[in-house]
Write a structure and sequence with these properties.
This protein is mainly alpha-helical. 52% of the residues lie in helices and 4% in strands.
Length: 326
């Protein structure tokens, strides 16, 4: 346990060191709504711009697929979430700028997604993360995530639209099946005692309901429904939207948003980046669904962000959480 904690802190310090190129270089972008998006037509672009992600300096493999450097014992790894989002950033740039090189960069990532869709022990096709990850419970390699499933589907749907190549649609279909199965069945959907449907970014027992991962996953389900008209997928989407609507207040501390609902004694506040991401994601959900609750919370959390008192209080508590948890 002590060795594991020591390895964790060595990796974290290396990742956060000023000027370091780590996995944080990729994730910590400026979250932005794609204002040119047609929210009923996935061909028009993705819901967030992901522009900063297209500026990621690497490392890359020999095909141009990004690797994330987690430092320490984890090192450089493929992350299917990052690969899908990197591709979606270039898809948006292709739609906006018409540069064929951007399209090629996008399709390179989608080809990786097709080639690396794996069958789990339950017979479902998922994108695996082949490294351990420190979280509420250690995610042991290989592990899958609703976030990789949703982001991958969002990328593949657009690859199919632009190329009409069935390999992308077939892979999206296979990946979508994981949302139709519960975590007990090898899928990525958790159903609570009240019948709420949650898409789990990190599959743990008990579940933690990571907010940003749930929302990004939801967009993949939405994209699949828009293209196929699958009524079962539409039902999943509607139920998941209602889950967020009915539980969003649980993520509100009165001065900041929570990252998840893990049953830890001290609650995990969102980092400044993830708090900004929540604000952006809720703006998108408002545009997709027309539900005013998402705009209301987005505006409230934006006020927290602009408050010196709220932001400093959140940062201090986040630092304390990191010391005692993960």
């Amino acid at each position: 346990m002590l060795k594991s904690k020591w390895n964790y802190w060595k990796r974290i310090v290396a990742a956060y060191r000023k000027g370091a190129n780590s996995q944080l270089t990729f994730w910590h972008e400026n979250p932005a709504v794609n204002e040119n998006m047609n929210f009923k037509d996935p061909a028009a672009g993705y819901y967030m711009t992901f522009y900063d992600k297209t500026l990621y300096p690497g490392p890359f493999d020999d095909k141009g697929v990004p690797l994330l450097d987690y430092k320490g014992v984890i090192g450089k790894q493929y992350n299917p979430i990052a690969i899908a989002q990197y591709g979606l950033g270039f898809y948006n740039r292709y739609i906006k700028e018409g540069n064929k090189e951007h399209l090629n960069r996008f399709l390179t990532q989608c080809d990786w997604l097709v080639e690396n869709l794996e069958k789990n022990k339950y017979g479902l096709y998922v994108w695996m993360h082949h490294f351990d990850w420190e979280y509420f419970r250690i995610l042991k390699s290989p592990w899958c995530s609703s976030l990789s499933q949703g982001s991958g589907i969002s990328a593949l749907i657009r690859a199919y639209i632009v190329t009409k190549n069935e390999k992308y649609m077939n892979a999206a279909y296979r990946a979508m099946e994981s949302f139709k199965k519960t975590v007990e069945e090898g899928g990525v959907t958790y159903v609570d005692e009240e019948g709420n449907i949650w898409f789990e970014e990190a599959i743990t027992n008990p579940p933690t309901h990571i907010l940003n991962g749930f929302i990004w996953s939801l967009w993949g389900v939405y994209d699949y429904y828009l293209l196929t008209g699958d009524k079962r997928v539409e039902e999943l989407f509607i139920k998941a939207v209602n889950t967020i609507k009915n539980n969003l207040y649980k993520y509100d501390t009165g001065y900041w948003s929570l990252y998840d609902l893990a049953p830890t004694k001290m609650k995990m506040l969102a980092s400044p980046f993830y708090h900004s991401l929540h604000i952006t994601q809720l703006k998108v959900l408002n545009k997709i669904t027309g539900e005013s609750i998402f705009a209301d919370f987005s505006n409230k959390w934006d006020r927290y962000k602009k408050s010196f008192y709220c932001s400093r209080k959140a940062l201090l508590k986040k630092m304390v959480f990191k010391i005692f948890y993960y």
